[in-house]
Write a structure and sequence with these properties.
This protein has one domain: 3-Layer(aba) Sandwich (Rossmann fold), CATH 3.40.50.1820. It has ten helices and nine strands. It has about 270 residues and is an alpha/beta fold. Helices cover about 35% and strands about 15% of the residues. It has a seven-stranded mixed beta sheet with strand order 1-2-4-3-5-6-8. Strands 7-9 form a two-stranded parallel ribbon. The radius of gyration is 17 Å and the shape is globular. β5, α5 and β6 form a beta-alpha-beta unit.
């Protein structure tokens, strides 16, 4: 199985960034680590091994990146405004450095898949819902999609601070306010698949989501005109669940781009990005 380690200096983040590329062809999967994980976490947890047959067969190619949790959303030594700005800078890095790299290395532009667990699920969902024209599929496990909302032992991550940046990077805040925005049209064109929870999809896509915030997010998906069926999960065992979910996921992958699927980036938010 092809395995590449990449490292370069990012002008947007002003630091070296590392990445693992696993597999040689197939659907491109952008993988976020969990809150305390790093770019090699997916491999360490054994999830790469569980997907080995799909990677070797050229069905999937993983791009495992750094999540920078302690520099951004969980960097409590910083003011909340600085943390959300750092999160936005990570998004710029992904849009302008990682995605072009993926396109250059892999010509299969008919699908790009977002994936994340825990905080990685939030990062994946935030990015996809903000830029649905760039991603055909989303897989998000056990995510909290509103970091300002107290959930069990988790408090408001920003300690009451709120600005336009928090709003536009929180799916459960900006999704209900899209109105006639072009993003909502993309999201409504989606197909959803969710094991033991809900998820929302976009742009002729399939999505999988498991975890907290699901009730409120499910309600928002209905408000936005998106369907979110559910199926049983596997008792929280990520390795088995991920392998089985990817089996279902890849079994339904189309081998061609849908008509009119865009490759160029659309305009940013008219009201600012934050």
């Amino acid at each position: 199985m092809n395995r590449e380690y990449l490292r370069w200096y990012s002008q947007r983040l002003h630091r070296d960034m590392e990445m693992l590329v696993l597999g040689h062809a197939g659907a491109k999967v952008l993988v976020f680590p969990t809150r305390e994980g790093r770019f090699f976490e997916y491999e360490q947890l054994g999830l790469v091994a569980s997907l080995a047959d799909k990677l070797q067969a050229g069905h999937l190619q993983l791009y495992c990146i750094e999540g920078l949790a302690t520099e951004s959303l969980y960097g409590f030594h910083r003011h909340p405004a600085d943390r959300i700005r750092r999160h936005a800078a990570l998004e710029d890095y992904i849009l302008n450095e990682v995605l072009p790299l993926m396109a250059a290395k892999n010509p299969h532009d008919w699908t790009i898949v977002q994936h994340g667990c825990s905080l990685g699920a939030f990062q994946a969902a935030s990015l996809v819902f903000r830029h649905p024209h760039l991603f055909r599929k989303l897989v998000a496990f056990s995510g909290r999609y509103d970091l300002t909302m107290k959930v069990e032992s988790f408090g408001d991550l920003f300690d009451g601070y709120y600005d336009v940046g928090v709003y536009f990077h929180t799916p459960m805040h900006f999704l209900p306010g899209l109105g006639g925005d072009w993003r909502l049209d993309r999201l409504r064109d989606a197909t959803s698949f969710s094991p033991s929870a809900m998820l929302i999809l976009f742009s002729t896509t399939t999505g999988i989501s498991v975890g907290c915030s699901r009730t409120r997010m499910s309600a928002i998906s209905c408000m936005c005109g998106m369907v979110a069926p559910t199926v049983p999960a596997h008792g929280g065992r990520w390795q088995r669940f991920t392998s089985d979910a990817w089996g279902t996921f890849t079994a339904n992958l189309e081998l061609r781009s849908p008509p009119g699927h865009p490759t160029a980036r659309s305009p940013r938010w008219s009201g600012g990005r934050g």
